[in-house]
Amino acid sequence: MRQTMRPVTLSRVAETAYFAEKVSSFSRQELAVVLKSSEDRGKEIAEEVVNMGLLKKEDDRYTRTTKCSQFLALIRSNNWAGIHEMMMDYSFYQTFFTILKDSNPSTPEEILTILQTSSIPFNQASRDVLCDWGERLGSIQRNIFSNQYFTTSPLVSPFIPKFLEVYQSLNIKTGLSLRQRYVEIPKVREHVCQKLRISRDTFDMHFIRLCMKNIGKIELAGAPVTTHAKRSANKVKNVQFVELPDKMTMKLSSNHFLNGLKIGPKSYYYVAYHGGELID
User: Using one digit for the tens of pLDDT, what is the confidence trace for 35-89?
Assistant: First the structure.
């Protein structure tokens, strides 16, 4: 009996659940036709979806569970937090998330080392799949500059001290006494998010409010669309739900560029702090 997690993407889980909703039962061969995969891969995907509790197996045929219908309802409502909560019943995901939550922000190599101390067998493939799941569901985030992963939660610590700490660390000297003053918002965002373990959306909400309350002390500036500062070899992962008449899938994409900040019709890419006490 296989003990390790079969590497299955969220998109494949969604497609399998949707197929199970359309038919009373199916075989691995029938699933393979729908997924345009080999029979062995069809079986591998079906068996792991069984482990997730979305399918049940009897006499080599698979049928949906009540949880499968709940999973599809969550996808259709774009409730990724709800899917995260559902997947906390899945041993591999639950162990992965709990270990990462209880650890400091960690690189992929560090995550695998910690996972391999658990009672559940993890390998590099299962780590990569679960990191991908977590990023796309928004339950974890990766600082693309440090390549460290961390779980996200609502803001519980003061925002201003961490913003100033990160801003000063990035506001490097360009001469004996000169500092560059303007710092890239994406860099500030990534590092503040990691220190506070918050999502990028949470950062933007609090940062915009901070800027609006401290006009004159905090200045925002734009940048040419073609600026090299916006280009990054790393990507921010996201997920979109797509349902067609005969198919459901989760469109998994990655942004090649880190965004600045948009307030009303204007876009900004740099921030400068001119001193003075900030109002929260």
Answer: 999 999 999 999 999 999 999 999 999 999 999 999 999 999 999 999 999 999 9
Task: List pLDDT tens digits, range 234-257.
Answer: 677 777 777 777 777 666 566 655
Contacts of 39 (CB under 8 A, 6+ apart): 28, 29, 32
End-of-domain residue from the set 78, 97, 128: 78
Selected residue with higher pLDDT from 14 and 223: 14
- Look up the domain containing 85 and give its range: 80-152
% of the chain residues with pLDDT over 90 = 76
3-state secondary structure of 7: coil
Residue 27 and residue 59: Cα distance in Å, rounded?
9
Closest by CA to 220, choosing from 168, 171, 266, is: 266
Two tokens, residue 175: 């001469």
In a shared domain, residues 173 and 250:
yes
Task: Round to whole Å and give the CA distance between 185 and 262.
Answer: 11
Token pair belonging to 17: 């659940």
* Structural tokens at position 79: 């409730």
pTM above 0.85, yes or no: yes
Pairing of the two strands 247-257 and 61-64: unpaired
Is residue 4 within 8 A of residue 123, CB to CB? The reply is: yes
- For residue 12, the surrounding DSSP H or E stretch is helix 10-22
Q: Where are the alpha helices (DSSP H) in 57-213?
A: 66-76, 80-87, 91-101, 108-115, 124-137, 159-170, 185-196, 200-213
- Residue 120 located in a structural domain: yes
* Three-state secondary structure call for residue 244: strand
Cα–Cα distance list, 128 to 75, 92, 97, 124 (Å)? 22, 12, 13, 6
